Amino acid sequence: MYPSQEELKEIFEYDPLTGLLTWKQGRSNVVAGSKVGTINNRGYSLCTINSKSFRINRLIWILMFGHIPEGYYIDHMNGVKSDNRLQNLRLATNSENQQNRSCPKNSTSGYRGVTWHKQMLKWMSRICHNKKRITIGFYDTAEEAYKAYLEYANNLYTHADRLPPLTMPPLK
């Protein structure tokens, strides 16, 4: 259970322009005014309160707005999980939160939504929507397949604003 807005206001100071969360008072192993948290192996800033670990982006949202509606996540619009400036945070459903995730590290094409289809000997462009996979088409190059993916995603998704443009080189 997350601390209440009132509890968080007693513990922290927050600068919405920089995203910096600091301790108001010294604690057993921290100095008043020092930066809160550490970054975990997934890139999120974490903080421990009363021996319980919390994501700082969620604490900030509660601090600023009082609560997070059930079933919602706090999305980092620019994809930088440690960037907790208020302008970079937004409420999102799980589906919306997945729409702007980056390309998986194990992608063979280097593009999100693009894979090599062995039987067709072409690059296949696919997208997932409402728990259903939709095949967009088959293409000679990974770039063509990704272009089709981007067009489809921009028409389908509401949170696709962080997908890398086609001009960006694929991840290796």
Features:
single chain, 3-stranded antiparallel β-sheet, 172 residues, disordered C terminus, alpha+beta, Homing Intron 3 (I-Ppo) Encoded Endonuclease, Chain A, 28% strand, GCC-box Binding Domain, 10 strands
Description:
It is a single chain. This protein has four helices and ten strands. Strands 3-4-5 form a three-stranded antiparallel sheet. It has two domains: 5-95, Homing Intron 3 (I-Ppo) Encoded Endonuclease, Chain A, CATH 3.90.75.20; 102-156, 2-Layer Sandwich (GCC-box Binding Domain). With 172 residues, it is α+β, with helices and mostly antiparallel strands. Helix 1 (5-11) packs across helix 2 (56-65).
> What is the general shape?
elongated
User: What is CATH's topology name of the largest domain?
Assistant: Homing Intron 3 (I-Ppo) Encoded Endonuclease, Chain A
How many individual domains?
2
Note the run of SSEs as H and E.
Answer: HEEEEEHEEHEEEH
Radius of gyration: 20 Å
The fraction of residues in strands falls at 25-35%
Profile the largest sheet.
3 strands, antiparallel
- Strand order in the sheet with the most strands: 3-4-5
Q: How much is the average pLDDT?
A: 88
Number of helices: 4
User: Number of DSSP strands?
Assistant: 10
Helix content: 10-25%
CATH class (first level) name of the largest domain:
Alpha Beta
Name the poorly predicted regions: 168-172
How far apart lie the N and C ends? 40 Å
Content-based structural category = alpha+beta
CATH architecture of the largest domain: Alpha-Beta Complex
